[in-house]
Every structure is written in structure tokens, then in C-alpha cells.
Design goal:
By secondary structure, the protein is mainly α. 49% of the residues lie in helices and 5% in strands.
Length: 146
């Protein structure tokens, strides 16, 4: 199996795993809020919560979450996965070629989100790439004028 097939398999696996853990992982743009919530709960301060979902197999799980994020983008904005099966770091370097010719690296972005926290927000990433992620669930909109 090649890296592109690994991406599809990992994205499906983590969507099921997140769903079974109480996160909405339906590949919709709004589900990127759930990825943010996942990191807020499971990796506060860029470290896995003891006995949490990232406490074991961290690399494989970050790859799977990155694959999921990339699949949300691909399914909603288009694009094609590409990667070099001979690259020893193929899981990190797998890229999503966008319809406009741009190239993004969702797994690398997820790794940054894990390490750096909300400053490397997944929802901001999706929004900049043109996804309509909507408002954060549970957050009321402010009414500036009454």
C-alpha cells in the first residue's frame, strides 16, 4: 500500500475513532472545530494528556488526524493527494495539491497545532483555504447593536 492509500485509510480510521470518543468527525468543514476541541482536551500545552488519546502511538495518531484534516479540505474544496512512497518521511511530507495549483501539507499543520497550540489553529487553516467552517459550536454570536 502506498502513502496516498495510507492517508485515506488513516482518515477513515480516525474519523471512526473520534466519533466513538464523542467528537463529530463527519468530514464536514465544521468538523474542524472538533479537531480543535480534540487538541484542547488531549494535548493542552503541546503535551499529551496522561492516559489520553495521544498518550500512545503519537506519530501514527497525528498522521491520522492530519489525514482527516486534509480529507476535509479535499472533499470540500477539491484537490489531489500526492506523496513519494520512497521518502522515509512520506507520512510527514504527503501533500494535497489544490485545484488552483497550490500545495498544502495537512499532516505538518496538525503537527504544528499539536506543538504550538491554538496559534496554529486548524479552523483558521481551513478558513484561509476557503472552507466555510461556521461559528464555534456552543458559542453564541455577540449582538453588538440591540
Amino acid at each position: 500500500m502506498g502513502i496516498v492509500e495510507d492517508v485515506h485509510e488513516a482518515a477513515a480510521w480516525v474519523a471512526a475513532a473520534l466519533t466513538s470518543s464523542g467528537y463529530r468527525a463527519d468530514f464536514s468543514p465544521g468538523s474542524l472545530w472538533e479537531v480543535e476541541r480534540f487538541f484542547e482536551v488531549e494535548a493542552p500545552d503541546g503535551r499529551p494528556r496522561p492516559d489520553g488519546l495521544l498518550a500512545r502511538q503519537l506519530g501514527a495518531r497525528l498522521f491520522a488526524v492530519g489525514s482527516y484534516v486534509g480529507e476535509v479540505i479535499r472533499r470540500n474544496a477539491g484537490g489531489t493527494w500526492s506523496g513519494d512512497d520512497n521518502d522515509p518521511a512520506a507520512e510527514i511530507n504527503v501533500a494535497l495539491q489544490q485545484p488552483d495549483g497550490g500545495r498544502i501539507w495537512p499532516v505538518q499543520r496538525v503537527m504544528k497545532r499539536y506543538s504550538n497550540g491554538a496559534e496554529d489553529s486548524i479552523t483558521a487553516y481551513g478558513a484561509v483555504l476557503g472552507l466555510d467552517i461556521g461559528a464555534r459550536p456552543g458559542q453564541r454570536r455577540r449582538r453588538w447593536f440591540r
